[in-house]
Specification:
121 residues, 7% helix, six-stranded antiparallel beta sheet, single chain, 1 helix
Length: 121
């Protein structure tokens, strides 16, 4: 790979612009993400330019993967750190909170309908 191509790849957006055409959900203040709904679940494509704190909450099952950056989770009181390439699973009903470091990109998949249609814009 040429140096020029390497620079172009490293400066590309994590998700392509056409993802912005998907319905958007405001997960938490400062965290909007494209979400796709399917039978039995939803998938979201997240990017946080600034450090973001997610308060403790619980819902149906969640699986995710970190594409860039660092996510710190407190899952049922246990602290775990996930970096690029790491994936995580949060069982249904388990309380959890998170701190996403600036520049973190991730994909989350939720069991069931995490976001109602009226919450998606």
């Amino acid at each position: 790979m040429s140096y020029k191509l390497f620079l172009e790849v490293r400066t590309m957006r994590v998700f392509p612009e056409w993802f912005e055409k998907f319905k958007q959900v405001t997960l938490w203040p400062g965290m909007d993400m494209p979400v796709i709904s399917g039978q039995g679940g939803q998938i979201g494509f997240g990017y946080v330019p600034q450090e973001t704190e997610v308060p403790e909450h619980a819902h149906q099952g969640q699986w995710g993967v970190v594409l860039e950056g660092v996510v710190e989770f407190w899952i049922d009181g246990q602290h775990q750190t996930f970096k690029k390439g790491d994936y995580y699973h949060i069982p249904a009903g388990v309380p959890h909170k998170a701190k996403l470091h600036a520049g973190t990109a991730f994909i989350d998949v939720w069991e069931g309908q995490r976001f109602s249609e009226d919450r998606m814009k």
